[in-house]
Structure formats: structure tokens, C-alpha cells
């Protein structure tokens, strides 16, 4: 773009313009720097990652782990697909594809490779239960009978008494520990937790299980609070009372009213048992294994417990997501995992890109035809928007797992229209001001004030659409919303930090301010000067003299127009003569 | 030196030349109504050709393939079930997965044979199964929920911004019209409705509303700034605003439509990228319809909603009376299409 050839008597817009352009430069350099840092020190890249349809990925076939003879219903499968989709979505905007196969399996196709983290995120049922601890002991991994069933009912291997001698009064009552259960607990092998994917007991029965590291075994009372009462779950660092972080990751749970009430009851009872370890402990049980079994150190009535365990940032986030979207109705196991190719041939992508490019060239030609040299500002703005979009998408695909699908690319191409419209609205407003007889510099400032309002309100509508759909929708609609929001924000940044400053600077040049015919801002061609406001009123047939008083706005313009009109009275020409 | 559209723009701005968008609203409403009824009819009669992402379909898995490429499968599908859109994926090193719409039993058996032959493997290496929809009911439900929430919020935001709920009503009604029309064209053309097409339609919704807000903002400017002292009737002010933004509307829709049209006609038509055509069709129709409806439906609708207001009625009557009193010849040409 042409640099301003002279800085004239109006320093304020010029200085403002340079300040804006500097900010834009800083922004681009910063994005560039972040990306470069990602490439050098992280696993970033200079190109964005592509989605399933363009790059392929991994196909995971999940098989429900149910006991022999049992089958899963279509309803359970659909529910599972819905929950898995939300879990996958929560990990980023990668647009996974999830469907059922043969009325039995769930197929998850994700771009990229399947890592342990994703695998756990997808397949575990994430059924959370809060149970009080009745007995705890170091794990003995030398059980003679590995088939020892964890279920207490049919766990009576011998003739031991399996019904409580006295009716337990609450979940912490030691009366739950029947001789049969005691025996099962004594012989329990922690390996059994891993073995059967279903170490479960009915909610109103005790459960024998181990902790995540398989070093402590527990005999737990019946379920006190269930995962279905969770309304939200987030991950975060554990904080001490002084607000310092301990560096330990935890999952913060928010219960609904019922859950909070039940939890308050439990915490009251367990707090009263303080000192009678392990009966003052309660256990967070996830899919049959104990995540953590902290002591109740106070009465918690707000229904917001915090679960700790051997979490990393990723695993705590995964668990929080799983808890938030609810437990799967059935557990799944990965039956097979294969790499899959893109469904769209590379030839198709190329054809699309070539077509898009041709379309862009057409846009350039049209813009130049419409706006002459001013069109180059549009083109430069589009290029700047393109650069920022590319860098942002590349960074997001590195940090947030964003992936570009064909629909996403089409969305970006349509965004050209949205983006160019900001410039068109702006230019047309400037032209309108010129038509009213303002000199260029004033027209640019006045036109900008009006255009910015229009641009912000209409872009605000786009942003609203993007945010609402991003929050509420799932799957590929979410990816679309993300792209829409991103391009909208970038568009506003470019029009404020580039297009307007450029026009401010160009308005100072002789080429534009003299209204060169090729500038696209030729007042004569725009019908200004000789026409003025008077004829603006023509269609309603009001004499020019009356118009002056019509409004403050009109009056202001009228005087300028009249003054101009007096100067160039004779030059009735160019625009008029061309009219058909 | 000005090109014709610039001159045209000048004339529209000053009002020298003016299209009577508001006055001719009966005509536009009738055209819109006819188009909407046609769309609805086509949708009911022809229905939509939903892709396998929505309906589920048949899947064929070929294993133990020496050279896993996509072409033999494409030919086999074309041979057995011509015109079927197949999604062919290479799985691992030696597997090929073919997904098609739900095939008849005989067709499906034929395709197993054809696929086995195409890849030179034993028939037992080809398994067929049914796959469920990847765009399940839950995705649709959430998308619709999102859409409704958006429309509600957009209506409220617009009402607050423009300080009148009537603009919201006009904008959203014309938006719904766009949606029906786009869907109608889809049903008429019979292109497969894929997730990409749905995304295209969502894009259109936001484009259409965006376009309406741009024009409405000019209407707000014209009607608010001129206020009580205006020498124009309300309808004339609205009409002038639409005319003044007409060049913008044309330029914007051309700039937005050019790349999309290129993808549709060159990409999908000439270069054969089939998968691009569904999304680009939705976008192209939407851009055209969205621009059209703002000018011909949303603006007249808004004017009509406001004209009945007592203050505006009084103002309009005064303007007309004054005009009569001024006795200027040809007062009837207040808003003239030329």
C-alpha cells in the first residue's frame, strides 16, 4: 500500500492512524511470535491441522462391556453416543464423528492419533458414587481365589452369614459388615478391580474395592450421594486457606439441591465420628474404584466437595468433563483402533481451493472496478485479515485442538463476504459524506463514525450467533460457531486497526484528496459539489429554502454544500453526462 | 469517469432515482408468498435427500487388501448402485471402509461381490453392517435449541439497539422466510443434505440477519435523525434508506457470492469436487435470498408495522398536507420508481 506522501496540517487523524497501525503491527508480530514459539519449543506447526474429512485420523470401535447374555438397548446406545460426543467436544473443537454400528458398537472417529488421555475420556463410564468407609486395610495381592466376586450378595463362598445381624441404622453403621463381607474383604485382590470392568454393587449395598494405585482396599457402605446429582464439575488447583496453591490438581463438584442436602447429612455424621478412623472417611468411587477417601474435617453444607487424587491437569480436566456430562449407561471397551484416511480425496480439496482462488480473483477484479484504487485498500485489508486468521487458526489448532474441515474452509471463504462488507459499508458512508459536499478528510472521519456503529451492531449479531451456538450446539455445529466467531472478531479488528487508518492516511495524499478520477473517491463522479443537499430533497418536492430548517443535521450539511456549490457552479458534467 | 454503478449510487443517494420498495410491498409480499408456498409444496412432495450422516446407512468393510486405495471401491459402487454417494475411507494399511446410503438387500449382496472383485480379495474379507447416524437426534436437538435461543436473543438485542421491537419482528420474519426458501430450493434440486449443507444453512441465517441489520441501521439513522421535522413520510424515509444502501447491498452480495459461485460452478461443476456442492449451493442461495429479502420484505414489513403508530400517522398526514399546500406540481411522485 502507498504510504502517505505528505503529513499535512491535520496531525490528529494521522497520528491516530499511525497509532492504530502500530497496534496492528504489534498484534501480528505477537501472533507470529506465539506461533514461532510453538514451533520451536512446543509441538506447534506453521500450518493448521486438518479435520477428519480432509486428513483422516483414528477410528475407534467401542464395544459395550456387558455380561454374557445381556444386550444393550438402542436407547442406551444413543444415550452413550450423546454423552461421548459431549465429552469429546469438551476436549476442544476437533469435530469428531460418532455413530453407532450394527446396533451394538459405538464408532468414534477422531482426527489425529488416539492417546491414553482421549481413550480414557471416551471409554470410561464415569459413574461417580460417594460411599462412607467402613473398613480399610493395606492391599493383599495374594488372593488364592481370583474369581472372588466383589458383589456381596453372591459373594458368600462359604456358609458365612451374609445378612446383617442388626438392621444398620445408617450407611456408616458397622452392622453392614457381615461375616461374609468381612471374609470377602480379607481375601479381596485388588487386581480384580482392573479385571472386571464392572466392579459394581447395588447402590444400597456395601462395596469392596481398592484405591486407584491398588495399595489400599476398602469396604464401603451404601451409596450416599450419586453422580446423577452433580450439576457441574470443574478442575483446578487445590488451595490452602490462605489462598496459596498446593500444586495439587483436584476436581470441584457442584451438587444439585438434593445432592447438597444428602452430602451435608453425610458430612455431619462423619464429622461426629472424628477419630474413629477409618469410619470418619468417605470415598469418591469412580467406576468401582476409589479415587480418594479423605477424612471429613468439617461439616460441608454447600454441596461443593473437592475430589483429590493422583490427578494431573489433563486427567482432572477429563474427569471433570466426564462428571459434568453424566455417566455412560454402560461401560465400553476399545475393540479396535485403526488409522483412517480422509473421506475426501486430495483432488477434491485441490479443486475446492482452486475454485476458491478463482473466486477471490473475481472479487479483486470486481472491487477494483467498483472502487478503483480504493479497492486496493479492501484487498490489502482482506490480506491482513487472511494473515491474522491463518495465524490464529494455526495457534488454536496447536493449543486447543482446532481442526479445519471442509465446511470450515467454506465458512472462511464466505467470511470474505462478511469481511469485505465492513469495508463496503465504510466506503459507501464516506462516499455519502462526499456527496454531501464534505472535503475528503472530514468525509472520512464523519463516514467512519457512522460506519463503525453499523459495523459493530451487525457484527455483534454475528458474534451473538457464534457464542450462542458454541455454547449450546454439539459436534460440527460447534466447530462452525467457533469459525464464525473468530472471523467476526478478526474482521472488526482489521476494519478498526487497518482499513480506517489506511483511509485516514490516504485522505492526506494529493491523489485521493484532490479526488483523482481513479481514486474511487472523486467527488465529481460522486455527484457532490454541484448538486449538494438541495437536490437531495428533490424527490419529496420541497423547496431548497425550506430544507435548511429541516433538521440540525441537514442544516450543517447544507451550508457546506452550498458553499461548495457556489464555487463550482459551472461544472455540471462528468457524473450527470454519464447517466443512462 | 464514474462507472455506471457509482452514478447509479449517486442517484439513489440523492433520491434522483428511486425504487419504490416500500410502496410496492403488496407486489413483493405476493411474490414472496408464492415462493414460500412453492417451497413448502416442494418440501412436502419431494422431501429432502438426507445423507447417511442423518439416516444411517450401509457400511462395507474390506480387509486384507493388497493396495488400499479409494478408486476401485468408487467404481464398484457406481457399477452396482449408480448415483449413490459413497464415502470411502482407507482403514489402516490394508482395509477399506465404504459407507453408502441404506442399500436394498440384493444391492448390498451385489456390492459385496463387486467390492471383493475390485480389490481381488475373498468374499469373506468383505463384511457389511448397518451404521447409525453420526448426526444424531441429539445433534439436531442441540442445534435447534441453539438456533431458537439465538433468535430470541437476537430479537431482544435488536429491539434494544434499535429501540423498537418492530425491527426485530420484521428482521426475524424475513429471516424465517429465507430459511424456508433455501430449504425449498434444496428439496427441489434434490442435492444430498449433509452436515456441511446444514452448516451452510446456519451460515446463511447469520448472513441474512447481518445484512438486515446493516440496512436497518441506515433506516434508523434516516428516520431518527430527521425526526419530527422531516419533510418525508415515514415510508419515504425508509424507502430512501433502502435506496441509499442499495449499492452497498449489491456490492456486498456480489463480493460474497463470487467465491461461493466459483466453488459451486468451477469446483463442483467443472473440477468434480462433489462434496463441495451441497455447502456451496446452500450458501449461494442464501446470500442471494438474504440480500433480496432485506430489501423487499424486511424493510417494507418494518415500515408497515410502524405506519400505524399514532405519532407517525400524524406526522405523515402533516407532511402530505404541507406538500399539498406547497402546491408543487407532481407531488404524487413522492417515491417514484424510475
From TrEMBL, chain B:
Identify the Gene3D superfamilies for this entry: Multidrug efflux transporter AcrB transmembrane domain
Checking InterPro entries in the record gives: SecD/SecF_arch_bac, SecD/SecF_bac, SecD/SecF_CS, SecD_SecF_C, SecD_SecF_C_bact, SecF_bac
- Transmembrane residues, as ranges? 28-48, 143-162, 169-189, 195-216, 254-273, 279-302
Q: Which is an annotated Pfam family here?
A: Sec_GG
Subcellular location(s) of the protein: Cell membrane
Q: Per UniProt, what is the membrane topology? A: Multi-pass membrane protein
Q: Which residues form the Protein export membrane protein SecD/SecF C-terminal domain?
A: 120-306
Sorted UniProt keywords? Cell membrane, Membrane, Protein transport, Translocation, Transmembrane, Transmembrane helix, Transport
Q: Does the keyword Thylakoid apply?
A: no
Please indicate if the UniProt record lists Ribonucleoprotein as a keyword.
Answer: no
- Which NCBIfam families would you find in this protein's record? 2A0604s01, transloc_SecF
Family recorded in the similarity comment: Belongs to the SecD/SecF family. SecF subfamily.
The subunit structure is:
Forms a complex with SecD. Part of the essential Sec protein translocation apparatus which comprises SecA, SecYEG and auxiliary proteins SecDF. Other proteins may also be involved.
Q: What does this protein do?
A: Part of the Sec protein translocase complex. Interacts with the SecYEG preprotein conducting channel. SecDF uses the proton motive force (PMF) to complete protein translocation after the ATP-dependent function of SecA.
- Name under which the protein is recorded: Protein-export membrane protein SecF
**Organism whose genome encodes this protein:** Agromyces indicus
- Per the record, the gene is secF
Amino acid at each position: 500500500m502507498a504510504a502517505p506522501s505528505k503529513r499535512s496540517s491535520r496531525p490528529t487523524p494521522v497520528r491516530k492512524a499511525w497509532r492504530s497501525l502500530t497496534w496492528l503491527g504489534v498484534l501480528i508480530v505477537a501472533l507470529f511470535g506465539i506461533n514461532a514459539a510453538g514451533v520451536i519449543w512446543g509441538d506447534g506447526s506453521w500450518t493448521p491441522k486438518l479435520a477428519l474429512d480432509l486428513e483422516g485420523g483414528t477410528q475407534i470401535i467401542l464395544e459395550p462391556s456387558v455380561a454374557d447374555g445381556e444386550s444393550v438397548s438402542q436407547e442406551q446406545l444413543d444415550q452413550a453416543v450423546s454423552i461421548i460426543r459431549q465429552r469429546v467436544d469438551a476436549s476442544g473443537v476437533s469435530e469428531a464423528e460418532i455413530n453407532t454400528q450394527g446396533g451394538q458398537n459405538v464408532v468414534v472417529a477422531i482426527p489425529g492419533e488416539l492417546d491414553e488421555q482421549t481413550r480414557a475420556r471416551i471409554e470410561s463410564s464415569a459413574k461417580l458414587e460417594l460411599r462412607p468407609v467402613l473398613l480399610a486395610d493395606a492391599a493383599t495381592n495374594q488372593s488364592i481365589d481370583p474369581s472372588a466376586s466383589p458383589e456381596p450378595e453372591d459373594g458368600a463362598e462359604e456358609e458365612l452369614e451374609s445378612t446383617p445381624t442388626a438392621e444398620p441404622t445408617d450407611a456408616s453403621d458397622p452392622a453392614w459388615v457381615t461375616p461374609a463381607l468381612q471374609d470377602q474383604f480379607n481375601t479381596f485382590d485388588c487386581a480384580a478391580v482392573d479385571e472386571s470392568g464392572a466392579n459394581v454393587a447395588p447402590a444400597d449395598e456395601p462395596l469392596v474395592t481398592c484405591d486407584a494405585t491398588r495399595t489400599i482396599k476398602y469396604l464401603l457402605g451404601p451409596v450416599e450421594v450419586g453422580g446423577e446429582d452433580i450439576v457441574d464439575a470443574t478442575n483446578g488447583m487445590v488451595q490452602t486457606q490462605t489462598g496459596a496453591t498446593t500444586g495439587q490438581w483436584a476436581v470441584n463438584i457442584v451438587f444439585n439441591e438434593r445432592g447438597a442436602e444428602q452430602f451435608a447429612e453425610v458430612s455431619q455424621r462423619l464429622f461426629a465420628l472424628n477419630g474413629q478412623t477409618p469410619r470418619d472417611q468417605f470415598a469418591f468411587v469412580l467406576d468401582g474404584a476409589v479415587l480418594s477417601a479423605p477424612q471429613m474435617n468439617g461439616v460441608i453444607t454447600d454441596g461443593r466437595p473437592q475430589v483429590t487424587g493422583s490427578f494431573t491437569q489433563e486427567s482432572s480436566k477429563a474427569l471433570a468433563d466426564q462428571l459434568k456430562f453424566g455417566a455412560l449407561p454402560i461401560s465400553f471397551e476399545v475393540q479396535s483402533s485403526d488409522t483412517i484416511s480422509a473421506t475426501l480425496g486430495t483432488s477434491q480439496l485441490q479443486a475446492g481451493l482452486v475454485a476458491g482462488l478463482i473466486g477471490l480473483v473475481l472479487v479483486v477484479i470486481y472491487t477494483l472496478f467498483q472502487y478503483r484504487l480504493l479497492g486496493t485498500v479492501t484487498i490489502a485489508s482482506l490480506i491482513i485479515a487472511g494473515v491474522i486468521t491463518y495465524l490464529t487458526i494455526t495457534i488454536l489448532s496447536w493449543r486447543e485442538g482446532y481442526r479445519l474441515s471442509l465446511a470450515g474452509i467454506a465458512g472462511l471463504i464466505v467470511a470474505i463476504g462478511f469481511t469485505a462488507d465492513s469495508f463496503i459499508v465504510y466506503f459507501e458512508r464516506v462516499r455519502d459524506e462526499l456527496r454531501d459536499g464534505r472535503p475528503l478528510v472530514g468525509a472520512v472521519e464523519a463516514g467512519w463514525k457512522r460506519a463503525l456503529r453499523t459495523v459493530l451492531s451487525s457484527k455483534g449479531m454475528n458474534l451473538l450467533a457464534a457464542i450462542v451456538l458454541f455454547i449450546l450446539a454439539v459436534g460440527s455445529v460447534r466447530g462452525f460457531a467457533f469459525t464464525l466467531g473468530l472471523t467476526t472478531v478478526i474482521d472488526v479488528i482489521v476494519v478498526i486497526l487497518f482499513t480506517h487508518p489506511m483511509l485516514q492516511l490516504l485522505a492526506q495524499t494529493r491523489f485521493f484528496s484532490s479526488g483523482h478520477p481513479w481514486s474511487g473517491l472523486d467527488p465529481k463522479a460522486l455527484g457532490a459539489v454541484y448538486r449538494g443537499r438541495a437536490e437531495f430533497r428533490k424527490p419529496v418536492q420541497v423547496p431548497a429554502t425550506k430544507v435548511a430548517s429541516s433538521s440540525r443535521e441537514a442544516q450543517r450539511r447544507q451550508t457546506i454544500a452550498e458553499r461548495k456549490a457556489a464555487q463550482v457552479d459551472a461544472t455540471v458534467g462528468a457524473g450527470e453526462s454519464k447517466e443512462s | 469517469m464514474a462507472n455506471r454503478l457509482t452514478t447509479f449510487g449517486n442517484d439513489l443517494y440523492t433520491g434522483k432515482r428511486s425504487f419504490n420498495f416500500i410502496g410496492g410491498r403488496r407486489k413483493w409480499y405476493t411474490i414472496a408468498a408464492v415462493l414460500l408456498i412453492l417451497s413448502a409444496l416442494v418440501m412436502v412432495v419431494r422431501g429432502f435427500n438426507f445423507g447417511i450422516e442423518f439416516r444411517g446407512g450401509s457400511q462395507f468393510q474390506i480387509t486384507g487388501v493388497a493396495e488400499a486405495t479409494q478408486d476401485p471401491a468408487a467404481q464398484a459402487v457406481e457399477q452396482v448402485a449408480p448415483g449413490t454417494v459413497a464415502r470411502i475411507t482407507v482403514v489402516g494399511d490394508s482395509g477399506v471402509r465404504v459407507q453408502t446410503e441404506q442399500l436394498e438387500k440384493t444391492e448390498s449382496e451385489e456390492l459385496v461381490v463387486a467390492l471383493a472383485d475390485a480389490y481381488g480379495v475373498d468374499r469373506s474379507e468383505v463384511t457389511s453392517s448397518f451404521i447409525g447416524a453420526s448426526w444424531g437426534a441429539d445433534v439436531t436437538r442441540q442445534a435447534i435449541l441453539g438456533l431458537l435461543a439465538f433468535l430470541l436473543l437476537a430479537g431482544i438485542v435488536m429491539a434494544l439497539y434499535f429501540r423498537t421491537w418492530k425491527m426485530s419482528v420484521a428482521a426475524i420474519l424475513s429471516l424465517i422466510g429465507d430459511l424456508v426458501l433455501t430449504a425449498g430450493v434444496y428439496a427441489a434440486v434434490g442435492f444430498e443434505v449433509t452436515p456441511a449443507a446444514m452448516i451452510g444453512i446456519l451460515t446463511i441465517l447469520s448472513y441474512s440477519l447481518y445484512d438486515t441489520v446493516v440496512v436497518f441501521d441506515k433506516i434508523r439513522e434516516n428516520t431518527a435523525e430527521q425526526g419530527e421535522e422531516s419533510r418525508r413520510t415515514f415510508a419515504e424515509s425508509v424507502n430512501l434508506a433502502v435506496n441509499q444502501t442499495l449499492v452497498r447491498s449489491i456490492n456486498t452480495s456480489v463480493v460474497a457470492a463470487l467465491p461461493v459461485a466459483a466453488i459451486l460452478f468451477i469446483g463442483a461443476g467443472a473440477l468434480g469436487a462433489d462434496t463441495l456442492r451441497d455447502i456451496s449451493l446452500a450458501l449461494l442461495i442464501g446470500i442471494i435470498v438474504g440480500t433480496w429479502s432485506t430489501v423487499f420484505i424486511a424493510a417494507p414489513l418494518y415500515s408497515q408495522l410502524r405506519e400505524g403508530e399514532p405519532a407517525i400517522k400524524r406526522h405523515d398526514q402533516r407532511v402530505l398536507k404541507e406538500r399539498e399546500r406547497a402546491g408543487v406540481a407532481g407531488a404524487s411522485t413522492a417515491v417514484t420508481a424510475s
